[in-house]
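Pair request: fold both.
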Amino acid sequence: MLQADRVDVTTERKADHLRINIEQDVAAKGVTSGFERWRFVHCALPEIDLEDVECAASFLGRALRAPLLISCMTGGTQEAQRINRRLARVAQRCGLAMGVGSGRVLLEHPELLATFDVRDEIPDVPLLANIGAVQLNRGYGAQECARLVESLRADALVLHLNALQEAVQVEGDTCFSGLLQQIARLCNDLETPVIVKEVGWGIAPDVVTQLLRAGAAAVDLAGAGGTSWSEVEAERLQEPARTRVARAFAGWGIPSAECIVAARRAEPDAYLIASGGVRDGIDVAKAIALGADLVGIAGAFLRRAAESEERAEELAWELTTTIRIAMFCIGARSVAELKATPRLRSCHPGRSGAESRDRL
């Protein structure tokens, strides 16, 4: 295939992904995030003032006004450029971290830089570059990854793990053998911090441990319950049999809340990012209370930004305001106090509603 043909195929796929995520119902079916199984115990007498509640956090040495990440989503098309710049302006004004979509196409076609490059809009908060981890098995290494990070002036590189998506995608790359060793080599050779994330099916605690030992600075657990990329790919498939195979995985994955609890137990000192099926600020607060350090949201921001920059900023305000009110109503003045709160209880079916997270 000619070089021009390859970029056409890649940008067409990116355009498909963007359109499908905005227009179609590609949420997981038959599995939830698990946040609904947890409930804060309301404190009628919090003994603090709402104005004293502060949900500030830090990430990669930069200050955030809330422990929120606009997760890696898109790039490579003109529509992606418009959305990325809207989201970057929102991230800057609201003090949130932000990631851009997979940059492999940018490495192959530098002329697409404008569709990814938002650093001029987001000078003060963390910006994440992103590439598929499987590309490390296809000749990409520290040199190429450093070039991607430098071109975007990013604070860290995200390696995304998407084995299931690649498996159901006609043009997918399923060469995952020996990938942990490649990740370890990159973490050792790249000066920029490396974050490893799933794309929506979760990372089990043993794999979290493997990634941290390989040198990952943080792990984004990206559990099930939100966008299902097998559902996204099902919308692209033309053959009924392939579509049915992809649809069979609509309920696949480890629920987000379960990922957080298990990962924090396995790695008490790790920097953990939670994402996947985070619906509102209360889910964000639950994720932090369960053990996450930062919480990522993708689909909701994408759909709002497709409407307008104002709608995306409204979502950021809604999330931050809800987090602060939830903290106020359990007597937590800070994110540190939220993380340590005893006022989160499991309401899992078959368990006592008074059972604490420590006895899950």
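--- second member of the pair ---
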Amino acid sequence: MKSKRKVLLILGWSDPRWLRSISRYAVAAGWHVETRSFFTGTIPRGWHGDGMIVGQTFRKDLSEFTRRQAPQQPTVIIGRNNPGIQAPMVTGDNAMAGRLAATHFLQRGHQQFAWFGNSLLTTAQERQQGYRETVEAAGHRCHLLNYTTIPELRQDLPNRSRWLAHQLRRLPKPLALFTLDDQMAAETIETCLEAGWRVPEDISVMGVGNIELACQCSPIPISSVDLDPGQVLWKAAELLDELMRGKRPPQEPVVIAPRAVVARQSTDSLAITHPQLVRALRFLKENIARSFGIEQMAEAASISCRKLYHLFQRQLRCSPAEFVIRQRMDMARHRMTETQAPFRAIATGCGFGTVRTFNRCFRRIEKMSPRTWRKRHLEQSKAVT
């Protein structure tokens, strides 16, 4: 019987979906995976194998072992926070995550923006940069709430919460706040609620990672950028497999694009104060399931179609027609993923009128049919469960 390749897994921090993805690949490839250091923190001294997958290691002794061990066999690093090893890297696109978060807020009419997190790590720096540059390119300022400049706040959560509340008190509202990750988003939401701010009406909060336990169990469910961690680990395992077979390593990091922003209650608010635009959006919300024209929206807002168009362009960065389609598409995607409703019911319930119109709009935006999109989403969901 052919012996299995032995692979060591060293992950100082990981998303639960990482393990499911690596398990699927290892079973298909016939690997034996050494996981004791991951589950028990044991340092596998004397280990000899064929390959190693390494994530960020926080313990000094485990980091030192990893640096000594990595040159002895093919090794792949997960993420940007390099533990001091020269080896091929697979990472999520952190800058794109920041850009997606900024775009999400801009499309909801936000004018005031902030970032909250730890900027010591490369991951944080890239997310912050992508967010800030997108906000500034749209003509706005991004306030940087960086607690790492104050060492005593790194582990002291009560003091950090008080510090954050003090910083937020000085910023204009409504505020679009992008945080380093989902855990920090949950921490931020608790701070906001304790200080008396409404989420998302006063402060909209976005995380990164789309970790269900953190996002769904927060006092306010958290909107988050899904970095597609299963695909990151799958690609890392695939790369390691190639290296163990003698293929030359890539010269640049392998970068995996995020899936999308998963919108939940923490950003479910439009930062609109113009009274006529508020009336137009109220009309849209009340009538989204039926067919109507832009003229009817303008009439509900007591303004001309021309002025309504300029209000949408200035406040929401799109035309009224584009915004209506965007809202209907958001509703349709939600129903396609959260229910088993047939496409005819989705089309009529979301205001598209007919399945043919729904299919045409969906293909234009998603570059695939609703049926293919739903099938892919189901396959991706099964891949990480």
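Observation on the second member. Residues 120 and 148 are 7 Å apart (CA to CA).
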